[in-house]
Amino acid sequence: MRAIQLDRPGGPDALTVRELPAPARADGEVLIRTIASSINPVDSKTRAMAGPERLPMTLGWDLAGVVLASDHPGFSTGDRVIAMSAQFATGRGTWADIVSLPADLLAVAPASVSLSEAATLPLAGLTALQVMDRLRLTAGQTLLVTGAAGAVGGLAVQLAAHDGITVHGLVSRPEHVDAARRLGADTATDQTGELGCYDAVFDTAGVHVPQAVKDGGKYLTVGADTVPDGLASRTLDAGPNYVEQDGAGLSRLAALVDAGALRLRIGAQFPIHQSHQAHRRAEQGGLLGKVVLTF
After folding, report:
1. Could you point out which of 4, 13, 167, 224 has its C-alpha 20 to 30 Å from the C-alpha of 27?
2. Given strand 237-240, what is the order of strands in its sheet?
3. What is residue 12's predicted lDDT score, i.e. its pLDDT?
4. Which residues are paired to 16 by β-bridges?
5. Partner residues linked to 98 by β-bridges
6. Measured between alpha carbons, how far is 165 from 249 in angstroms, rounded to an integer?
7. Would you call 263 exposed, middle or buried from its count of C-beta atoms within 10 A (0-12, 13-18, 19+)?
8. Taken in order 183, 270, 286, 45, is the CA torsion positive or negative?
9. In order of start, what are the domains of the chain with their CATH numbers?
10. What is the reported pTM?
């Protein structure tokens, strides 16, 4: 089978598509034929910082594919599934023709979209969902999402709007203002000076806007490892949030996609033999959707 592996720290040229033996399915695991995956910022960070003791490694966190073999009652041969694998921690990369993953990481893929579209959901969707669950906002409360037109931010905007939360978006460029509004933001801007004061801030872009959260509010970030100094003493919950593997959460997200509450976006699509070009396009930024790799 083919896999995209990292041989050395570096840029996109450090990635190699090579032939490897197919994995064996362990007890409690499901063997999956990968149809598509997507590129996330963590992949580029891993590519740049991976130590020699971990190399070579197969990269990739997202997976959308078809079950090849399973002894789990929830998944049968031929089922369309999605999964997120915490590659850097577990060593289970998804950029391979065939992947074996624990059954509790999987969910049935949304039926209303292609597997290429479904591949954009796992990491970004779980990141947004887990932060929204932690914020525990209710209808009528206010939320600022930074990076509101991005992969995580765009899904967070849609989740908030679905729950009746008044959501405002901060974007990186004027041409993304309308995109954030189309996703459900009540208003959007690319100017930090135009922000109000909110019950919560969800920072997906590493943009420090401590002035935008009310005293006693919440301020969570997935775009940085810390929050601005002094913020923790003003808020009920302030800090970074790290995504966790969660098949049940993916099932919740898939149901929302099929209900029309979440729209998935592909910004560009490349076959795996063009992985260098795919990474370069992802790093250019500016896309209103994720870069998808097809197998």
Report:
1. 4
2. 187-189, 166-170, 142-146, 198-203, 213-221, 237-240
3. 95
4. 5
5. 33
6. 20
7. middle
8. positive
9. 2-120+264-294 (3.90.180.10), 123-240 (3.40.50.720)
10. 0.97
Query: Between the CA of residue 237 and those of 67, 218, 273, what are the distances in Å?
Result: 40, 5, 44
Of 229, 1, 7, nearest to 100 by C-alpha is 1
Please write the tens of the pLDDT for every residue from 27-83.
999 999 999 999 999 999 999 888 888 899 999 999 999 999 999 999 999 999 999
Nearest Cα to Cα of residue 241 among 257, 225, 260, 262: 225
As given in the structure block, the two tokens for residue 227 are: 């929050």
Distance of CA 159 to the CA centre of its chain: 14
Q: Which residues pair with 220 in a beta bridge?
A: 202, 239
For residue 92, what are its two tokens?
């289970």
Here the tokens at position 194 are 């135009």
Sign of CA dihedral 269, 270, 275, 279: negative
